[in-house]
């Protein structure tokens, strides 16, 4: 029963809230904001809404829109330099996981020396950064409510996790209108990333009653809504539920951390240029299969949350239904059934195994995992053997 649950981010969910972000900043007493975003957000016209709102509230701003997918340390430090030149009182992140993660790094480095990568690991950042307001434009990473940021080492392609209570955004603005026009591929990738967060958090060795409640509810909401959001993108209700579910899943994993799917996917998504969510979705059934003997009851609960008929079904069989449900979702969302189709090759296998084992997520995966196990999971995922 012993656990802590710390999540200091104020969450506001409301249709059209992005149009009032200037009001919010004004009410918090901020006058000069540094916006961190990317070209995709600019091209989608989303930033215009935010800029109008800031102008109406007489908030000064400068925009850093150079965030790249899987932001590198250099990319973040370039933003830090621009932020220091501008000297704002707050930071506003607008975008998907990459922009919000970069903004978290930039905001915290405003008051810390060295480079963000120097703080890889848990609890190593000495000083609190500038207050961050995060406006997600995808429903996936949930970075708006987590204490971590992922920084890619451009030379090794290793994705380092920096985790600190100072990385929690102060505010998360959930406005599903911003997600209405997401392309189908992005909807599938980000939505399956959120499902992977929820499943890995729910089965993590360090989950607790509170994180499990968030995770299981997120699994149910995603199971009910991901295909609607994918096939009928303008359906507001399913977009809204996916946005809330991705936040719930992230609030859960921020307490429990994740598992072998994220440990492995981080090693190859950068090297082979595979979107994070697609890498996770493809790996997920293989890791669930590996984990099943360690947590059959939890897997049976996942099956039920995904709408499988589990009443009266023996636990192990019910647990298998969870894997089948994920496989069916992947098929429906046009996600490959093996990582070979993602362009992954096995010539780097020893490095992928070594880098996976470096991830703290392996230690809290429900089933004890050795380098040999990781190697087998990757080989099975490559050959499509379940
Ligand atoms: Fe993820």
Features:
386 residues, alpha/beta, Rossmann fold, Dehydroquinate synthase-like, alpha domain, 2 domains, six-stranded parallel beta sheet, three-stranded mixed beta sheet, 14 helices, 49% helix, 11% strand, globular, binds fe (ii) ion
Model description:
The mean pLDDT is 96. The longest helix has 23 residues, at 209-231. The protein is α/β, with parallel strands linked by helices and 386 residues long. The protein has 14 helices and nine strands. The protein has two domains: 10-179, Rossmann fold (3-Layer(aba) Sandwich); 184-383, Dehydroquinate synthase-like, alpha domain (Up-down Bundle), CATH 1.20.1090.10. The strands form two sheets. A six-stranded parallel beta sheet has the order 1-9-6-4-2-3, with helices on both faces. It has a three-stranded mixed beta sheet with strand order 5-8-7. Strand 7 and strand 8 (159-163) form a beta hairpin. Helix 7 runs antiparallel to helix 8, helix 7 (209-231) crosses helix 11 (296-305) and helix 10 packs across helix 14. It starts with 9 loop residues before the first strand and ends with a helix. Fe (ii) ion (FE2) binds next to helix 6 and helix 10. Fe (ii) ion (FE2) binds at residues 141, 193, 197, 262, 276, 280.
Helix and strand run: EHEHHEHEHEEEEEHHHHHHHHH
How would you characterize the largest beta sheet?
Answer: 6 strands, parallel
Which compounds are bound in this model?
A: fe (ii) ion
Radius of gyration over C-alpha positions, nearest whole angstrom: 20 Å
Q: How large is the count of helical segments?
A: 14
Distance between the termini: 35 Å
Q: Report strand order across the widest sheet.
A: 1-9-6-4-2-3
CATH topology term of the largest domain = Dehydroquinate synthase-like, alpha domain
CATH architecture of the largest domain: Up-down Bundle
Helix content: 40-55%
Structural class, by secondary structure, is alpha/beta
Low-confidence stretches: none
Count of domain modules: 2
Range of strand content:
5-15%
Give the overall shape.
globular
CATH superfamily (homologous) name of the largest domain: Dehydroquinate synthase-like - alpha domain
Number of separate strands: 9
Mean pLDDT: 96
| CATH first level of the largest domain | Mainly Alpha
